Amino acid sequence: MNPHFPDYLDISRNDLARGASVKFSVLKDMPDIAQHMAKTMLKIIESAKEKGKPATLIVPVGPVDQYPILAEMLNQQHYSIKDVMLINMDEYLTDDDQWVELTHPLSFRGYMNRKFYDLLNPELAPLPENRICPNPNDSGAIQNLIDQRGGVDACFGGIGINGHIAFNEPPEVNLAISVEEFAQLPTRNLDLTRETRTINSVTVGGEISIIPWRAVTIGMKEILSSAELHFYCNRIWQSSVVRRVLHGPVTSVCPASLLRTHPAASLTVAEYVADPPDIRLR
User: Fold this and answer.
1) Could you tell me which residues are beta bridge partners of residue 34?
2) CB 64 within 8 A of CB 89
3) Domains with residue ranges and CATH for the chain
4) How far apart are CA 232 and CA 162, in angstroms?
5) Which of 24, 103, 206, 219 could form a Cys-Cys staple with 17, CB 3.0–4.6 A?
6) 2 pLDDT exceeds 80?
7) For residue 1, is pLDDT > 80?
8) 165-to-168, 254, 265 alpha-carbon distances in Å
9) Contact 102, 63 (CB under 8 A)
10) Greatest CA separation for the chain
11) What are the two backbone dihedrals, phi and then psi, of residue 52, each rounded to the nearest 5 degrees?
12) Each residue of 209-230: b (16+ CB within 10 Å) or e?
């Protein structure tokens, strides 16, 4: 145990699940994570159909590799999801709080088109009205849709380096928000933190200036109200934040720690994420 760092950073891979209320599992690598995520999405879609209603899912752009796999599964099985509603977690905004254009290289809506909707046989794809993204001009629309659909069957997502889920950023150091207050935050427009913009720039060549400052996000309220939560971590830098989520304090300072307050939350990580972080100068 290193006296300079939080105790949770020393937790071994074998002990990560110990005492955790979140269902925890480890897979080999990114391709395995993507396969698992695609299969879980399809399983929940099928389960909802068996119950007599089309599924409603909250889905991320990050992780992303599951979408072409899911499209191939659906095409091979000739399985229609036209009545399934997919609600994207978030989207980047322009400086005047409008969606970035679909043609913007970083648009999440554009990514969903290229890597999922456009890959599906047209007769199998969700109807256009079932391809949802939070509207920066109507923050209440998402909750209204969810209510009309009878709730969200499952929310899928990843975890940011500062513990955010969707773009629910932790409060700034001078702003205290209780766990209860944070859990009730709805869909909204917000500033992205420097930490989020920095790590997001790493995945697109390291140029932070191209990462927008503003975004619209599904709220913690909508996420935590979902019947099931399925989160995935496939980046090596997530090794520390996973430990913080599972074994640090439940706090708004680490939004993903609130997964531990949900009765049906799971977290699946790659082997290298489950390994303890090697914190030292080299």
Assistant:
1) none
2) no
3) 24-273 (3.40.50.1360)
4) 15
5) 24
6) no
7) no
8) 6, 9, 13
9) no
10) 59
11) 95, 15
12) eebbebbbbbbbbbbbbbebbb
Average pLDDT score over residue span 68-81 = 98
Q: Where are the alpha helices (DSSP H) in 118-159?
A: 141-149
Beta strand 188-191 pairing with 214-217: antiparallel
Each residue of 14-45: pLDDT tens digit? 999 999 899 999 999 999 999 999 999 999 99
Distances (CA, A) of 134 to 104, 171, 191: 17, 21, 15
What is the reported pLDDT for 203?
86
Q: What is the C-alpha to C-alpha distance for residues 280 and 282, in angstroms, rounded to an integer?
A: 6
CA distance 185 to 280: 37
Q: What number of other Cβ atoms are within 10 A of residue 180's Cβ?
A: 9
Q: Which of 86, 6, 28, 1 is nearest to 274 (CA)?
A: 28
What is the average pLDDT value for the chain, to the nearest integer?
A: 96
Residue closest to 238 by CA, chosen among 201, 281, 195, 272 = 272
Closest residue by Cα to residue 197 from 246, 227, 149, 160: 160
